[in-house]
Amino acid sequence: MLKMILAISGKPGLYKLVSRGNKMLIVESLDATKKRQPAYAADKIVSLGDISIYTDDDKEVSLASVLQSVKDNYEGKVVDINSKKANSAEIIAFFEKVLPNYDRDRVRVSDMRKLLSWYNILIESGEDDFSEEKMEGEETQPEAESAE
Description:
Layout: E1 5-8, E2 15-21, E3 24-29, E4 36-40, E5 45-47, E6 52-54, E7 60-62, H1 63-73, H2 88-98, H3 109-124
Antiparallel strand pairs: 1-2, 1-5, 2-3, 3-4, 6-7
């Protein structure tokens, strides 16, 4: 699911990939307006499925895992912390609750605010399936049925 959700640099909110055009993508905002617009190759476009967060043990945790942790901690509801108005201590306390072993040197408060904002946008739009998709080539082959 997260592979189809995009963040576009310079544009607020999140977008769902609708179609591909010639040298552009057609995206639809996840807010109530559901406005469709083009996103061009010059825009910095990132799929949420490609984002990961650094941890203390030199590993990276996928964004899907962190969003699932937020969903589990807040029972699938919108988090009542305002990502824009909350102070840094509130944001850090929230993030330590959902990912206690995050790398405190490389993960910034602005990244935590963005994750909180994205989570609330996804929940409000009904996009709450944060299960990680299998990578290409990892799909399991169906077992052949034996004829008796």
